[in-house]
Amino acid sequence: MAGEEINEDYPVEIHEYLSTLENSIGAVDEMLKTMMSVSRNELLQKLDPLEQAKVDLVSAYTLNSMFWVYLATQGVNPKEHPVKQELERIRVYMNRVKEITDKKKAGKLDRGAASRFVKNALWEPKPKNASKGANKGKK
């Protein structure tokens, strides 16, 4: 905490956890300040629609997650609160965006090239007449 002083208001065993929590909250605060320094419209104009969807989903998920933590600190069970359904709904949309991204990354099949590969890779027996004619010419 401030200068790593140990406060007697809480058990010594949780001091390290509280220090980690304070550092994490500071990091979140810095990220939020950075994100809030640029207007949303300005940020979204630089992104394609898929990236815009990702930003919106991450923002909504983060906000709802922070509300989940707030509820927990107030003694409310967030598992019984509508925020749980909202987080699940956002997660479903995040999975849809991931599927779209994965489809874009997947290779495309060139049917013409594939058929040429298969045709050239298959063994074709030589005609019987061609081999007899070649043998007669050698004798």
Automatic annotation (TrEMBL):
InterPro entries: Exosome-assoc_fac/DNA_repair, Sas10/Utp3/C1D. GO terms for biological process: maturation of 5.8S rRNA; regulation of gene expression. The keyword DNA-binding applies. Its main location: cytoplasm. The keyword DNA-binding applies. Coiled coil: none annotated. One of its GO terms (cellular component) is cytoplasm. It is found in: Cytoplasm; Nucleus, Nucleolus. One of its GO terms (molecular function) is RNA binding. Keywords: Cytoplasm, DNA-binding, Nucleus, RNA-binding, rRNA processing. Monomer and homodimer. Plays a role in the recruitment of the exosome to pre-rRNA to mediate the 3'-5' end processing of the 5.8S rRNA. Belongs to the C1D family. This is Nuclear nucleic acid-binding protein C1D. The lineage of its organism: Eukaryota, Metazoa, Chordata, Craniata, Vertebrata.
